Amino acid sequence: MNRRHCASAAITLVCALSVLITPVQAFATPAPPSPSDARSDSGSKAPEKSLEEVRKEIDALYRKAGAATDAYNLAEEKAEKQSGEIVKLARAIVVGQSKISELKSQAGAQAREQYRTGGLPPGAQFMLSDDPQLFLDGVSRVREGQQAAQGVLGELTRTQQDLETYTKDASTNWKKLEANRVKQAKAKKKINAQIAAAKKLESRLKKEERARLLKLEQAAEYKLQTAWLSSGALKDINRKASASGKKAVAFATAQIGKPYVWGAEGPKSYDCSGLTSQAWLSAGRPIPRTSQEQWRLLPHIAIKDMRPGDLIIYHGDASHVGMYIGDGAIVHAPRPGRNVTLAGAGSMQILGVVRPDK
What we know:
The protein is of the alpha+beta class. The protein is built from 8 helices and 6 strands, in the order ααααααααββββββ.
């Protein structure tokens, strides 16, 4: 049963890739809708914008939502890190306070002992003896007592200084945590607003117009992919995936069909960088959570040197990412309302390529 399932999945993947790289006739751009077609279900007046203009507007809104999602994910990642640091510091403060109590107790015991002996350390009394050996023993004991007292006081001072540093660091991390929570809230508000605006535009379209809108999206992607392939970009891209790259690709392609949800890292849904970061985590290579951080921190690779498993970063603001799987195709989580799917690697504006396992 597993073999038949794997074979079926492989055939499906090969067929999908064939569609992506085989030159076929592009979708013709539909003619502008007639006034009767353009009316909404509520019977309102025809929109002034063409369906293509609506498509571009929806695309721009989802692009902005994608950028805000990256900001949200980064703020969330930093907040989690700072929360962890605060917990560590809080534990260190508790240990430091306990140690200070212990050292103060030792110092107090030494002070009480000195008081009981009339202000003289225990060994000092032997220094008053006429016996030379007792005198020498007394000198040694006094020296040991002084060193012990200095050691306790020195350790007490160092522990108090450490405690002050821990407290200061905890306060700094708390402020950063609160700042990132504010950033998260703002980004979340922006994401929801952009997605709501895009959905509102789509909701005004009739069923047949939404179908045409999807064809327009596909036609726009096909046009970009065809131009990319025609440029000869794929000619020198023939490298094989690394062992870890194969694992990452296997994970990512296994998620095909699962819905895009902003901020999601699986296992039931993903956003674009949630998919790529989890894929590489499954391959034993933790990478940054967001597409912008992946672009900033991972090694850059020339497109001609690209191999399956590499990540293609899209748009000038690095707000989208997909995983290259070979034959000019990527697997990615496109946007809200869409599922994890295959697409042409050149179907969006390529910013560059990064390699997690270089």
